Structure prediction request, 257 residues.
Amino acid sequence: METALITGASSGIGYELAKIHASKGHRVIAIARRTDLLNALREECAQMGKGEIVVWPMDLAHHDAVNTIMQRLSDENMAVDFLIKNAGFGTFGLLVETDQRQTEEMLRLNIVSLTALTHAMLPRMIARGSGCIMNIASTAAFQPVPLMAAYAASKSYVLHFSEALANEVKGTGVSITALCPGVTESGFKAAAKMENSGLFKRRGIPSSFDVAKFAYKAMQEKKTLSIHGWINSFLARSAGFFPRNLQVIIARKVAEK
Prediction:
């Protein structure tokens, strides 16, 4: 039985990816802070009669979380075939008006823990000669975004880290995929307090399930960069054709309330 370890599995894209992997008959190690939501995921997947959901409630922003994960994998003799790092959150507003501790926690989760888990897991995959790693970045990674300055910068790190790593592991049998969704119907909007942002005023915002289906296919195809939606793809790829100061101005206009 193949095993998928998914962080941020209690809601949104991570939740839907966990269900997709379970539907394929995989064992899913679901990691998130909310035990109640993880248990709801396990119950929903159990009704499918496929796969297996293993629930590991923990806060990945904690400095010892990655060591705990690796020790549990070793103790239970589990090898991870699919590593999906969806855990993360955003903050919205002027940096001087946002909580400093919350921003630091976001950077630990979006960058530090993602990197640490990759660093710990990758040697095992390379030794086996197989494995798929997916990092959830964002279309915000392609340009600076005022009112989401730290978040967009953290996702830029995820994108560049993934693309560089994909080059490093060529020929090892391991693939690295950076998924860049645009605005998605998930818990992100409420968590980042973005209900009034222009980003969420558009019509036709995709569901987490739609993005998760796209993500699963991209990982199976071992794509290095995968941007959900042709409009998102066009805008992200064309950002570099505009002067950087204009990119920032446009990004703020879009993000503003």
Notes: The CA atoms of residues 16 and 209 lie 5 Å apart. The chain has one domain: 3-255. The longest strand covers residues 174-180. The two ends are 47 Å apart (CA to CA).
